[in-house]
Specification:
8-stranded parallel β-sheet, TIM Barrel, single chain, 13% strand, alpha/beta
C-alpha cells in the first residue's frame, strides 16, 4: 500500500482559508478529488491522508464529508480550537467519525512562539490521547525546542512533524534545526514527514539541494519513522506531483526496498492507524 500522507482539498467559496490569497495564483482555485485522482494513478499511490488547510471545525467537517465520498482518502487530519473550554468534548465528538485520524493546530501561523507550552492546552492533548488521535505538528525550526518540551509532558501522544519542520533550505541553513530535530528523534517516538521540502527550497530546487536535509532526517528518525507526503497542491507552486515523486525516489535510492515501502506507505498506516477507516 502506497500512501500520500499529506494532501489538501479546498473550495474557495467556503471562505475560511485566510492564508490563501490571489497572490498565490497557481493554487488560488478549487482543488477536488477529481483533480488529484489521475495524479495518484500515474504515481501508483493507493490512498491519501487529507490534511486541514483552515483553522475551523467547519472545514474539518467538510473534509470528513469528502473522505466519506472519496475512495482513496484513508483518513483526515482536522482542526479544533485547543484553547476552547470545551475542546476535549469537541475532540471526542469529532473522533467518533471513523475518518478522523489526527488534529493539527496551525502552530506556524500563531503569533506567540511559546503557544504550545500553555498549560491550558493540556486537556486538549489529553483528549487526543484518549481518542487515539495523532498530533500533526505544523512547526517552524524556531518551535522545535518548545515542541520537545510539550512532548515530554505527553509521552503517550502519537506525533507526526510536518514538512521536516520547514528547514531553511533556500538559504542552505541546517544549524539549529539539525540539532533540534535530532533531539526530537532521540527523545520521543515522533514520526517526521518527508513533504513540503521543495516549497522550502523554492523555484529552481534540485535533488542535490534537498539531499543534506533528507539524509539528516533519515539518519535521525530512521526509515521506520519517516513518512512520505506530497503537500499537493501547495507543492505545485514549484514542482509537479510527478516531479516530487521522482525526486523522492532518487533521494531514497540508498534504502532497501523494504525501507522505501515503509516510507512510502507502511509508516503512514502505523502513524495514523489508517485501518480505523476500514472498520
Amino acid at each position: 500500500m502506497r500512501i500520500d500522507a499529506h494532501q489538501h482539498f479546498w473550495t474557495l467559496s467556503r471562505g475560511d482559508y485566510g492564508w490563501l490569497t490571489p497572490e498565490l495564483a497557481p493554487i488560488y482555485r478549487d482543488f477536488t478529488p477529481a483533480d488529484l485522482a489521475p495524479l495518484l494513478e500515474a504515481a501508483g499511490i493507493d490512498g491519501t491522508v487529507l490534511v486541514q488547510a483552515a483553522p475551523t471545525v467547519d472545514e474539518t467537517r467538510f473534509l470528513l464529508s469528502v473522505a466519506a465520498e472519496t475512495e482513496f482518502v484513508r483518513g483526515v487530519v482536522g482542526w479544533v480550537d485547543f484553547e476552547a473550554p470545551d475542546a476535549p468534548e469537541q475532540i471526542a465528538a469529532l473522533a467518533e467519525d471513523k475518518y478522523l485520524v489526527g488534529l493539527r493546530p496551525m502552530i506556524q501561523d500563531i503569533a506567540d512562539p511559546d503557544w504550545i507550552l500553555r498549560e491550558d492546552l493540556d486537556p486538549a492533548f489529553e483528549a487526543m490521547i484518549a481518542a487515539g488521535l495523532t498530533f500533526d505538528a505544523l512547526t517552524l525550526p524556531r518551535h522545535l525546542k518548545n515542541l520537545l518540551a510539550r512532548l515530554r509532558r505527553h509521552p503517550d501522544l502519537r506525533v507526526v512533524i510536518d514538512h521536516g519542520s520547514k528547514p531553511l533550505i533556500r538559504d542552505g541553513v541546517r544549524k539549529g534545526w539539525a540539532g533540534d530535530m535530532a533531539a526530537l528523534a532521540r527523545e520521543t517516538g515522533a514520526y517526521c514527514k518527508l513533504s513540503g521540502l521543495v516549497t522550502e527550497a523554492g523555484a529552481g530546487w534540485s535533488v542535490g539541494q534537498l539531499r543534506p536535509y533528507v539524509d539528516h532526517l533519515l539518519a535521525q528518525f530512521g526509515p521506520e519513522r519517516v513518512i512520505w507526503g506530497s503537500d499537493w497542491p501547495v507543492c505545485t507552486l514549484v514542482a509537479s506531483y510527478a516531479d516530487w515523486t521522482r525526486a523522492t525516489v532518487e533521494l531514497l535510492g540508498d534504502l532497501t526496498s523494504e525501507e522505501r515501502a515503509a516510507v512510502f506507505g507502511g509508516n503512514a498506516e502505523r502513524a495514523y492507524r489508517l485501518a480505523k477507516a476500514e472498520q
